[in-house]
Design a protein that fits this description.
Elements (H helix, E strand, L loop, with lengths): L37 H4 L1 H31 L6 H32 L15 H19 L5 H13 L2 H8 L20 E3 L16 E6 L9 H8 L1 E5 L19 E5 L11 E3 L4 E3 L6 E3 L5 E4 L8 E2 L1 E3 L5 E3 L16
Antiparallel strand pairs: 1-2, 2-3, 3-4, 4-9, 5-6, 6-7, 7-8, 10-11
Pfam family, one: Rieske
Subcellular location: Cell membrane
Membrane topology: Multi-pass membrane protein
Length: 342
C-alpha cells in the first residue's frame, strides 16, 4: 500500500480526492458526554435560577408599566424637556419589556430546562402512531420546561406576556381612527378656487400652459386655523394641461376638465404617498415610493406598479373671472385602497 505518513489523500486523517480509490470511512462519534449543570445537582442553585427568571419577567412587567406612565402620565407642553422625558420613558419601557421576556426565557432554557441531546431514528409513518407520538412529544416538552411544577415562573411569564403587547397596541391606536368615510369628503366644493401650493394664490386657466403641472390646494385652506394639515393632506391636487385631443374621458366625464386642463388627487391609491412626478412626453404620473404609474390620457388609469385604482379626478371649470374652480368634491374617496370602503 505504501507509506502515507506524508499526508497523502489516503492517509488516515486526510480528505479523499478525486482519482483515489482508497476512501476512509468515518465512524459515527456518537453523542458527547453530558455535563451536568449546577442547577441539575444543587437544589438551591435551581431555586436561585428560578427566582432570577421570575425577576426578569417582573422587569418586563415593570417596563410595560413605565411605558404607560410615559404615554399617559406625561403631559406634553411647549418645552423640549417634557418631550425628552416622555421619549425616554417610552423607549426605556419598551426596551425593558422586551428585554425582560427575552432574557428570562433564554435564562430559563439554559439553567432549568433539560439540555441533554437526543438522537432518534426515522420510522415509517403510521397515522395513529404518529398522532400519539406527536401528543407524547408535546407532553414531553411541557414536562421538560417544568412549567407545571414551577408556578412562580409560569405566573410571572403569563403576566409579562399579557402586558408586553399593550405598548404596541397603544402606539398603533395613536396613529388615529380608522378612516371610515373621512376620506370621502375634502375641502373641495362647488365654486372653490384652485390655488397654488403653498402660497395659496388662485390660478387662472390662462396661467396653465400645455405641459405644465401645478401643485394645487383649495383657496379656503388659507383661512383654516385648526386641522389645516389634515385637510391639506386630503385635498392636495395635481393640475396639468394637455392637448384636448389627447384626453379620452369616459361617458359622463366629458366636462370634468377645461380646454385640456385636468386635476387629479395627488395621493397615490397604493399606500398614500404623494404622486409628484409628471412625464410631459408620455403624460404619465409617477409615484416615487413604489413606482406606481398612472396614464393621464386615460383618466389616470394604473399602467404599472402595485396601485390597483386610478387617481380620483376633481371636476373643474372656470368662473366669471377666468379662475379655475371645482365643480364639486371628489366623487370617490381619495387615498389608498387597503381598508374597507363600503
Amino acid at each position: 500500500m505504501g507509506n502515507h505518513s506524508d499526508g497523502t489523500p489516503t492517509g488516515a486523517d486526510a480528505v479523499a480526492k478525486a482519482g483515489h480509490q482508497e476512501v476512509d470511512v468515518f465512524q459515527d462519534p456518537g453523542l458527547p458526554p453530558h455535563r451536568l449543570r449546577l442547577a441539575d445537582t444543587d437544589p438551591k442553585a435551581a431555586k436561585r435560577a428560578e427566582r432570577q427568571v421570575a425577576w426578569l419577567f417582573i422587569i418586563s412587567i415593570i417596563g410595560t408599566l413605565v411605558f404607560f406612565v410615559g404615554y399617559f402620565g406625561v403631559r406634553l407642553d411647549d418645552t423640549i424637556g417634557t418631550l425628552r422625558i416622555q421619549n425616554t420613558l417610552l423607549g426605556a419601557g419598551v426596551a425593558f419589556a422586551m428585554l425582560g421576556i427575552g432574557t428570562g426565557i433564554v435564562h430559563w432554557a439554559r439553567a432549568l430546562m433539560p439540555d441533554h441531546e437526543v438522537a432518534e431514528e426515522r420510522h415509517p409513518l403510521r397515522t395513529e402512531e404518529d398522532r400519539q407520538a406527536a401528543v407524547q412529544i408535546i407532553d414531553d416538552i411541557v414536562e421538560e420546561t417544568g412549567i407545571k411544577r414551577r408556578p412562580l415562573i409560569r405566573n410571572t411569564l403569563i403576566g409579562a406576556v399579557a402586558l408586553a403587547p399593550l405598548p404596541a397596541i397603544a402606539i398603533f391606536r395613536d396613529l388615529g381612527p380608522l378612516p371610515g368615510d373621512v376620506l370621502r369628503h375634502t375641502l373641495w366644493k362647488e365654486g372653490e378656487r384652485l390655488a397654488r401650493d403653498p402660497d395659496g394664490t388662485p390660478i387662472k386657466a390662462s396661467d396653465v400652459t400645455i405641459g405644465s403641472a401645478f401643485h394645487v390646494i383649495p383657496e379656503s385652506l388659507n383661512d383654516l386655523h385648526e386641522g389645516k394639515i389634515a385637510a391639506k393632506a386630503k385635498a392636495v391636487v395635481l393640475l396639468m394641461r394637455l392637448n384636448p385631443e389627447d384626453l379620452h374621458p369616459s361617458e359622463g366625464r366629458e366636462d370634468w376638465g377645461y380646454n385640456g386642463i385636468v386635476a387629479y388627487s395627488k395621493i397615490c391609491t397604493h399606500v398614500g404617498c404623494p404622486v409628484a412626478l409628471y412625464e410631459q412626453q408620455t403624460h404619465h404620473l409617477l409615484c416615487p415610493c413604489h413606482q406606481s404609474t398612472f396614464d393621464l390620457t386615460q383618466e389616470c388609469k394604473v399602467i404599472f406598479g402595485p396601485a390597483v385604482r386610478p387617481l380620483p379626478q376633481l371636476p373643474i371649470t372656470v368662473d366669471s373671472d377666468g379662475y379655475l374652480v371645482a365643480q364639486s368634491d371628489f366623487h370617490e374617496p381619495v387615498g389608498p385602497s387597503y381598508w374597507e370602503r363600503g
